[in-house]
Amino acid sequence: MADKELSAAEEAAARAKEQAEQDALPYKWTQTIGDLDITFSVPGTLKGRDLVIDIKKQTISAGVKGQDPVLKGTLPHAIRVDDSTWTLSAAPDNTKLVEIHLDKANKMEWWQHVVTDAPRIDVTKIVPENSKLSELDGETRGMVEKMMFDQRQKEMGLPTSDEQKKMDILKKFQSQHPEMDFSNAKIN
User: Fold this and answer.
1) In sequence order, what are the residues at sequence separation of 6 or more whose Cβ sits closer than 8 angstroms to the Cβ of residue 109?
2) 111-129 residue pLDDT tens
3) Residues forming beta bridges with residue 88, ordered by sequence position
4) Which among 24, 30, 56, 155 is most buried, taking Cβ atoms within 10 Å?
5) How high is the pLDDT of residue 162?
């Protein structure tokens, strides 16, 4: 019993440390499984031309011209540059908000940090929002449906879609080559 309480206390301490590290960053960030959004404030007098935002497949640099970047470094994973954007909008407190949207190349992984030298978060603690299959793009929806089908097949002791495909290919080959003996064939 004491072990469980201790691990819960340790867990709470780890979450608090992680939150403090994230709060200390000069930017805020959130993510979904498919994309990542970063925000930071700049003086309200600035315009888009006063900013230097450089988004590449594996690196990012963002800040005010003539100053050290607010965010600069190597991304932990690749992004789709053409689908990544940034905007500058007015905030209620006479500042402006820089919002950077990064489109993840791999839509099936959580990021531990925005840049590799930033403090990490424990991605195993992320609880994804429930999303409807109908809201996913075609490619992602297909992957999720295949994963769900394969999971159900495994639970019932039936072949996965890939295993079924291999068996179908073997059956077709056997029907085309009746002269061959497949009695000892093994599928790998």
Assistant:
1) 33, 77
2) 999 999 999 888 877 666 6
3) 98
4) 56
5) 86
Exposure pattern of 131-161 as b/e (b: 16+ CB <10 Å)?
A: eeeeebeeebeeeeeeeeebeeeeeeeebbe
Task: Kindly report the number of other CB atoms within 10 A of residue 175's CB atom.
Answer: 8
Three-class SS state of 105: coil
pLDDT at 114: 94
What is the token pair recorded at 150?
A: 């394969």
Cβ–Cβ < 8 Å for 82, 31: no
Count the residues in the chain: 188
Given a cut of 70, the residues of the chain with pLDDT beneath it are 1-6, 126-136, 185-188
Q: Indicate yes or no: pTM above 0.70.
A: no
Q: Closest Cα to residue 88, out of 123, 60, 52?
A: 52
The angle, 0 to 180 degrees and rounded to 10, between the axes of the packed helices 161-176 and 138-155 is 80
Q: 2-127 domain in CATH 2.60.40.790?
A: yes
The CA dihedral of 163, 166, 172, 176, to the nearest 10 degrees, is: -140
The domains of the chain are located at: 2-127, 141-176
